[in-house]
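input
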Amino acid sequence: MPGHTLEVVSDSGEGAQRCAQIFGTVSAKMGNGIWTVEIIPAEIQPPPRHPTSASGNRVRIGTGAVTNWGDAADLIVAFNEQALLQRFRLGALADDAIILIEDMWATHADPQIRNAWDDAMEELGGRSFRFINVPMEEQCLTIVDNARLGKNMFALGLLTCIYGRDLDLVRDAIAQGFLKKAKSALQTNLDLFELGHRWAEQHIDFRIAVPAVKPDRAMVAMNGNQAIALGSIAAGMELCAMYPITPATSASHYLSDVFEKFGGIVHQAEDEIAAIGVALGSSFAGKVAFTITSGPGLALKTEFIALAIMTETPLVLVDVQRGGPSTGLPTKVEQSDLLAALYGQPGDAPHVVMAPATMEECFLCMTTARRIAEALRTVVIVLSDANLASGVQRFPRPEPSEHWLAQPLDLAPVRDGLRPYDWDPQRGVSPRIVPGQPGGMFTATGLSHDEASHVGYTPDVHERGCQMRSRKLALFQQMLEPPAVNGDPTGDLLVVGWGSTLGAIEEAVERARQEGLSVSSLHLRFLSPLEPGLKEIFQRFGKVMTIEINYSDDPTDPFFTSENRRRGQLCWLLRAHTLVDVDCWTRVPGEPLRPGQILQAIRESMPQGGSR
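output
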């Protein structure tokens, strides 16, 4: 994948994220593939000049499609040495990285700051980094009184010059951020941008070319939360009920700006339980509703999820996963809600769980989720994550399709004798009757009930209800296509993933195959029910291993045995369903997995005697 990876990092509040976001968006408009990942501290306003305070963005740009954030940054713009130091300690920098750094700290009046600079430079000195000192503060103070408010635009000017970005596109992107602000504020930021561009022209002696290819069709660039929001509009959703929670909130922020134009409503409830209650009640009344949350919110919603399953009320729930358990790592990525999404509800509560792997799939999965929820009269949980939520990727502009929409409700008078839970014995699906439909009055209940929705505690009533709720998912599973294998259909090792790890896994597998390793990969989009044919596929490989961003015990640790070892969550699921001895390689770094990490895991996991 020809391309280049860069980062912009600063203290929180200095605008490094905005700088890199504009750079990535402009690169996409010029024809480059992009993938961006936000670098977000856990605190809202962490202390300045501290290694844990680094805030910014990584941008990977390429000539073709870019599917993940890569291994290490080839170039980094750092507003101070402490932010740089954090990225170095996390292994985020290539050994020969170019570092553009604010140089005011080396001669600062405060001796503690000078000493911190010297210590950082000593720690960073063991690599072949190329340092370029940039007087950002000094330059910005020629235009603004507070350089903290201007360095991001100055840095954007540096990057625009170094990478040959289109000046007019950058100016337009800056202007878009100031539509509701004074013209003087826009002009100041444009002046800072031009100043950075001129400084780079005069003082930086290299340029980096990442050729762009004009696409043969219209493209869009957006993050996963925006894609989920737009997908909900495309699906004909009418209500988003939510309670603010990181990293899901930006989806509802986006909807708040545009949903009303399409007849939708965003309802911010007083808490997570109320949010799903509003969505569930709206759906029961015939509206198309969904709710969006993250792990802690999912935990609070479980009783209402079970109520939706028991009453067979269609509902879409989006869980943008973050690090856990409990409050955990609010701004960091993890895939640790899988088992909670599958089995966190009380009782036997079968439902559908999907996991998009790209920003494009975030859009499309919302239309699919709505159709499934209404066709099966069940809950569909969509598992996104923080990597997809805030990362930006370019993909073809979706072409409107009638297949995005579910079948309209039949609001005709209910025929005599039809009961609300007259299950179709062949499909397990019951008719949907909404309040106000002539002849359709009934009492909905979360208690065990018969076909007439009358409470029933007898064994046959309960058995029949459980059987029908399960049957419709079993028949739905038979409608799914077996997952495609990326690579040879047989081999020594099959790597299985889900969610946002797709791009990193496929790049690692491609690199491993170039080394002569017999390895293929498979990525799952449906996790309940699982896609068909998995056992037969697994049996064609010498070893099967999941790659996940959740915790598993190290099998070489003497504390763990095959009987007490905790495995990755997808690994557990696949072992139970296929009875194949699936292994796993998982990490919980709080950031996306890198292709190089996965490649090394593949090398170390090849079966003895595997092909090279």
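quick obs: The domain at 485-605 is CATH 3.40.50.920 (Rossmann fold).
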